[in-house]
Structures are given as C-alpha cells and as structure tokens.
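Hi C.,

You asked whether I'd gotten around to modeling the 113-residue construct. I have! Everything is below, sequence then structure, no commentary in between.
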Amino acid sequence: MVEDTILELLSPYQAAVHTITFDNGKEFANHQSIADKLQADVFFAHPYAAWERGTNENTNGLIRQYFPKGSDFLSITDDQILFDNDRLNARPRKCLDFQAPAMVFSLNSISCT
C-alpha cells in the first residue's frame, strides 16, 4: 500500500524525482520497485540520524504547531488539514532562499511536464 501511494503521488513528477530518502521501516521493503518505476536513486537514513532528513524533521516540527503531539486526528477535519497544509506550503523557507515551497514547486513543475 505504501508503494502504491508513493507511486501515485510521485509519478506525475517523475522527471523531477531524482532521489528519495526513506526511514528504515518495513513499509519501505519494496524500495527497489519504487526506485525502478520512478527511475530514482533510493537512500536510507541511518538510525537515530535525524539530520540526514533535515527537511522532513523541520516540516514535522512545523506541522506540530498546528497539530501538537497527542492530537486526536479523528476530530480533525479534512478541510482543516488542507487549510494548514496550504499555510505551510505558503510559508517562506530559509533553505529555499526564503521562497515558499508552493512557489518553488510550481516553478519547477512547469519544466518537469
């Protein structure tokens, strides 16, 4: 199921997907199939080495501003998740030269189609 979801979400952007870094969970057991279908290199972060996935860890922290640990996700609506997702993607990031991820993605997607 994880493999199918990753492929569904990333396939439209295959030209822009060069590498993927996964955690070491068993849900990524089919990593080679994902790599083959997306023609991308797959890497695994070392255990307890969060800095190897810096953007992911930073984004988790930003998400926690909207949904603190212990949040009951059964009480959170899809609309609330989409609203907060849009706010995060419109927030400028230092690692993107203070551009918003949505803008960078939009500009890069044009050349990937």
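If it helps when you're writing up: The chain has two domains: 1-44, 51-113.

Thanks,
B.
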